[in-house]
Structure formats: C-alpha cells, structure tokens
Specification:
299 residues; alpha/beta; Rossmann fold; two-stranded parallel sheet; 18% strand
C-alpha cells in the first residue's frame, strides 16, 4: 500500500481518476486550493505537507484557456512552473518521495499538425501553456536527478471522459445546442486518450520513470467523434459545410478578431490531422490503451 499525494484533486483529472487510484489500494492525501486534505495555493506558497509520501502525482495546473493580457499569461507560469517549484520545496522539508509523476501535455511539441509525433521531437511549444509545462519538465528533471527520485512525465493527448473541458467539451456543447458545423467531412484525425488510462499509467510508471506520449492506438477522425457524440445526445448528425465556404468565413473571422467563432488558425486546427506515437509507452510499460470510441461516455 502506497502513501500517495495527489495535487489538483478538485480539477477535471483529479475528480475522474482519484477513485480509480483509491481502488488500487493507495492511501491518498489530496492537495488543492480548497476542499482538500491540504488546502494550499501552490502558485503562492510552499505547502505544509503532512508527512513523507511514497508517490506524488502532480496534476495541478492551468490549461484550457487563451490568455487575454499579461496577467493571464503570467498565471500559467505562476501555477504550472512556480507551483511545481513550491511543491518540490515542500517535499524537501517533509521528506522526499520515491517517485514523482508529472502530468504534462503534448502541447510541449508546439505542433498544429503532424502524424505519429514521438517523444524525441523537439519541444517547440510557444504558447504560455506549453512554455510553462516545458519549463516545469526541465525543472523536475534536474530536481529528480539531484535527489535520486524516479520521475515519470506523462504527455497526454486530447483527453476523453465525462464532461471534458477544452476542444472536446466545446464540440459536445456545440452539438448539444445545434450550433456545431462539421467542416469538410471531418476527415482530420486526432490522438485521444481515455481518462481511466491515466490512473492505469500511474500504477505502471511510478517505479520505472521515463517520458511518455499517452493516447489511444486508434486516432479517430473528427467525423467519428462527431457521430459518437451526436448518437449519445440523441441528435442528428451535425450539418456540414464545404471547406471552401469555411475558408471564406475564417478569413472574415481574421478581420473581426478574437470574438469570431472561426478564423484561419482555428480552421487549420480543425481540418489538419494531429497524431502522436504511443509506441514507447506500449512497449516499455506493457500498456494496452483503452479504446476511446468504445469507452467514451459524455456524461
């Protein structure tokens, strides 16, 4: 039985996977800004931890938002980088763990499109979210090496689970409210990870360490995701508009600014495939990802 510290317990990841980690027999201490065993704002203070822990799962972080000003840009670094540094300082005071699992992101690669992107791809992410995660990864790598801690960095792709945030959540809301338009037949493919696999991966990696892309073996098309969501919502298939018309709408959106529902950047993301290679995780961890299209339930 492991004593496990889980940060970000009230976030989307925490609420979804904590019950699964508890089923594995872990004694879990939660840490979050409020409503946790340890209430602490990692972005501002070094936490007063209760005891040494065998495993730390660091899921606290800021994502799924576009910063509008310098304050919001700095918040990514305060939470994702400084929060990580404060957590490590707290662990140094109380007692170092055997292993540390960090929930990062495939956004660190900075790719808007591409196929089978592997862990050896350069870290070109330039958004505040990506840069803050890259810097946190670098800090943790040095810190873990200095303190002889087993470090695992998981880089999930788009995450599918109940009531997901981000682009998948926006797709669900759009289809639910009949405001979603499928563009060009939804041919682009995206790497997706079923939420439950994160808990499985924590148990597989905490004694091995390493950096892993984590996603399903099958990269579903936008069309397949649209159809699955519409079916679960008892909705008709989303209306489709040709790519040529969408391109003109996007150009108009470029002129209108951030309030426009579609611009050229968003159109590119929607219509170009972006997939990641999970071969390293499958082979080194003996991991068989859960099939997203079979397991994904939107609520």
């Amino acid at each position: 039985m492991n004593n496990l510290l889980f940060t970000g317990s009230n976030g989307y990841l925490g609420k979804a996977i904590l019950p699964l980690l508890e089923k594995d027999g872990n004694m879990i201490t939660t840490l979050d800004i409020a409503n946790a065993n340890i209430n602490s704002d990692l972005s501002k203070v070094i936490p007063n931890l209760l005891k040494p822990y065998d495993i730390v799962v660091h899921a606290a972080g800021k994502c799924h938002s576009m910063p509008k000003d310098d304050v919001e840009i700095n918040a990514f670094f305060d939470i994702n980088l400084k929060g990580t540094q404060h957590l490590c300082a707290g662990l140094e005071k109380t007692g170092l763990p055997l292993s540390f699992v960090f929930l990062s992101t495939v956004a660190v690669y900075g790719c808007e499109f591409g196929e089978d992107i592997a862990e050896d791809h350069s870290l070109n992410g330039s958004s505040p979210y990506a840069l803050s995660k890259i810097q946190a990864e670098i800090y943790l790598t040095d810190w873990a090496k200095k303190n002889n801690i087993i470090l695992t960095i998981l880089r999930p792709s788009l995450i599918a689970g109940k009531n997901p945030p981000g682009n998948l959540g926006a797709m669900i809301n759009g289809i639910k409210t009949d405001k979603y338009l499928s563009i060009g037949g939804g041919k682009a493919r995206k790497s997706v990870l079923f939420m439950d696999d994160i808990a499985i991966l924590v148990s597989k990696t905490h004694l091995l360490g390493g950096t892993y892309n984590v996603c399903d073996n099958y990269n579903p098309s936008i069309y397949e995701l649209e159809q699955l969501i519409a079916q679960q919502l008892n909705k008709r298939s989303p209306r489709t508009i040709p790519y040529g018309i969408a391109k003109y709408i996007a150009l108009l959106g470029d002129l209108l600014g951030s309030k426009a529902p579609l611009n050229s950047e968003k159109l590119s993301k929607i219509t170009k495939s972006l997939t990641f290679c999970n071969q390293k995780a499958r082979e080194q961890l003996n991991w068989k990802p859960l099939d997203v299209l079979s397991h994904f339930k939107i609520s």
